[in-house]
Design goal:
Layout: E1 22-31, E2 34-44, E3 49-54, H1 60-67, E4 75-80, E5 83-85, H2 90-95, E6 98-101, H3 113-118, E7 125-126, E8 129-130, H4 133-145, H5 161-173, E9 179-183, H6 191-206, E10 210-214, H7 218-224, E11 227-232, E12 235-241, H8 247-255, E13 275-283, E14 291-296, E15 300-304, H9 311-319, E16 326-331, E17 334-335, H10 341-346, E18 349-352, H11 356-359, H12 367-372, H13 387-403, H14 420-429, E19 438-442, H15 450-465, E20 469-473, H16 477-483, E21 486-491, E22 494-500, H17 506-513
Parallel strand pairs: 3-10, 3-11, 6-9, 9-10, 15-20, 15-21, 18-19, 19-20
Antiparallel strand pairs: 1-2, 1-4, 4-5, 7-8, 11-12, 13-14, 13-16, 16-17, 21-22
Bound molecules: adenosine-5'-triphosphate (ATP) and magnesium ion.
Length: 523
């Protein structure tokens, strides 16, 4: 039997093992005139991790929402254990034994970890009184299994993004689900944390649970997933088994052509211009200890380390969202102490925060509004839109959105209706219209597909070539290797080393990330 099948309408499972748990046949879904899914068929086997990959906007999340009962398909059939089912709403999905971790963070802000984990649980009643004890006990077991180190009484607002994702994963594990679908669960995790999640997923599969795993990290998909389905523009373009497919084949199924991804983006040594940002001996009340680094004009400086190493905190201190307790920060030689991010933007700093959906974008506004907002009298969306600049603004927005391959009808599309990765691209695109003095990027290509990532990197390099100083935080060592001229590594709130040029390798980055010492020049 052929295991690789490029025909979009083929329905055969890649292997002839157990009967499928879930079958999707010929499912279509459009939004307005846009086809998010066109005749999609796939089958999910019990005990198998099934990878779902494809470019931003290809339809992965839409399929997951259909299975979760959040969206209703226009046509097609869903079967569980061979019987046709209708998933009218999320409760129906839960009753079928399906659990979901969606791409949009869905924690209840202000609630503690335990309450968030218990959300959706239906505890037994004893003598008319709800008995939460078994659920609480179970929450503890699940938390231990995930290696959750923080207390379950912690307010989720106080957790890092990565820890918040762990809570979402914990919530899904609270159910005895037969299938868990995870939409980009590792996008916000560092390599070490992702590895921990991989182990848990393997255990789940070994115990018979089916897992749907969405990711743009092709290496992890090849390693973790047995079955792989590739989407492009709402159509299945490839179904295969991981052991028989190369990364290059996956990439070409995703982007529809062969793509050469540069291994190393910085063959030429960095031109060190004048210092633009100088962080000197900065500490904060919690984690950051005596951090110093300098970013020069035209330079792309990476900030590496594990999630929780203090990198985002350092960036926040620079742009006025965090408070320092010691040290100084200079912008073009002058001390700065911004009270809020808007002040930093006014001073010529471009900002792509880690949580851009909540902090960086106006989801209910259009692409061109979101891109041009940075260049207008910043951050005051309610001010009248200057009519004269409208056309010019839209034209520029369209050009820049196209450069970073935002998939949308035109620049008048509402950002909230874009796929997750395309929203990320809009958040980055807005800073590419002008040339900021300093560009702070926190996880620039999180959630961005493999083709667009190369484009985003190219545009960042162009900005640097025009003189912008770039500070890029990334948990993706491959990205740091490809993008940066120089990398500063942090661990546990301190700088553990610095790498330049061809010394920037995944191995060096990893060993410095785990370095607990405080040597300045480990490199
Ligand atoms: N509620 C909606 N209204 C309008 N269009 C939508 C809506 N939800 C999704 N779409 C469109 O459907 C298409 C598929 O989006 P989907 O979110 O499924 O992509 P994806 O493969 O998950 O992408 P990503 O990798 O960026 O997360 C996109 O073109 C998107 O703009
Ligand atoms: Mg998605």
């Amino acid at each position: 039997m052929s295991t690789v099948d490029d025909s979009p309408r083929a329905t055969a499972a890649p292997s002839d093992a157990a009967a499928p748990l879930l079958e999707v046949t010929d499912v279509s879904k459009s939004f307005g005139g846009a086809h998010a899914l066109r005749g999609v068929s796939l089958s999910i086997r019990p005990g198998v991790v099934h990878g779902l990959i494809g470019a931003n906007g290809a339809g992965k999340s839409t399929l997951i929402k259909v299975l979760a009962g959040i969206e209703q398909p226009d046509s097609g059939v869903i079967r569980v254990d061979g019987a046709s089912v209708s998933v009218a709403d999320p409760d129906a999905a839960a009753a079928l034994g399906l659990a979901f971790i969606h791409q949009e963070m869905s924690l209840i802000p202000g609630w503690n970890v335990l309450r968030n984990m218990l959300l959706g649980q239906k505890p037994p009643t004893r003598l008319g009184v709800i008995d939460w004890r078994p659920a609480r006990k179970r929450a503890k077991v699940v938390a231990d299994r995930l290696g959750i180190g923080f207390s379950l009484a912690t307010n989720v607002d106080d957790l890092s993004t990565a820890d918040q994702w762990l809570v979402l994963i914990a919530r899904a594990l609270m159910r005895d689900a037969r299938l868990i679908a995870m939409d980009e669960p590792t996008a916000s995790l560092s390599a070490a944390e992702a590895t921990r999640l991989h182990r848990i997923i393997r255990e789940l599969a070994a115990s018979g649970t089916a897992v749907i795993f969405v990711s743009h990290r092709l290496d992890e998909v090849s390693e973790l997933c047995e079955d792989i389905t590739v989407f492009k523009d709402g159509v299945v373009t490839k179904r295969t088994v991981a052991s028989r497919v190369s990364k290059a084949e996956l990439v070409s199924a995703i982007v529809g052509r062969d793509l050469v991804i540069p291994e190393h983006g910085h063959d030429a040594p960095a031109v060190t211009g004048r210092p633009v940002l100088e962080v000197r001996g900065v500490s904060d009340a919690r984690l950051v200890r005596d951090v110093s680094l300098t970013v020069h004009a035209g330079e792309i400086l990476g900030l590496a380390g594990l999630v929780g190493a203090g990198r985002t905190e350092v960036a926040k201190i620079v742009y006025g969202a965090g408070r320092r307790t010691g040290g100084t920060v200079l912008l073009e030689g002058r001390p700065i102490d911004f009270r809020e991010p808007a002040d930093a933007v006014r001073a010529g700093i471009g900002l792509v925060p880690e949580e851009r959906r909540s902090e960086g974008l106006f989801l209910e506004r259009t692409i061109d509004f979101n891109i041009n907002i940075a260049t207008l009298s910043s951050l005051r969306p309610s001010l009248a839109w200057p009519l004269l600049r409208f056309r010019e603004g839209r034209r520029r927005a369209e050009a820049i959105a196209k450069a970073v391959t935002v998939k949308a009808k035109d620049a008048g599309a509402i950002v909230g209706s874009l796929s997750g990765g395309n929203q990320q691209k809009v958040a980055i695109a807005r800073w590419l219209v002008d040339t900021p003095k300093l560009l702070l990027l926190d996880e620039p290509s999180r959630g961005v597909d493999v083709g667009a990532r190369a484009e985003v990197h190219r545009v960042i390099r162009e900005l640097a070539a025009r003189g912008t100083a770039v500070l890029a935080i990334s948990s993706d060592n491959e990205e740091l290797v490809a993008l940066c001229d120089r990398v500063v590594v942090m661990a546990e709130g301190r700088v553990t080393g610095e790498l330049t040029g061809t010394d920037i390798t995944a191995d060096h980055l990893l060993s410095l990330s785990f370095d607990r010492g405080n040597e300045k020049d480990a490199a």
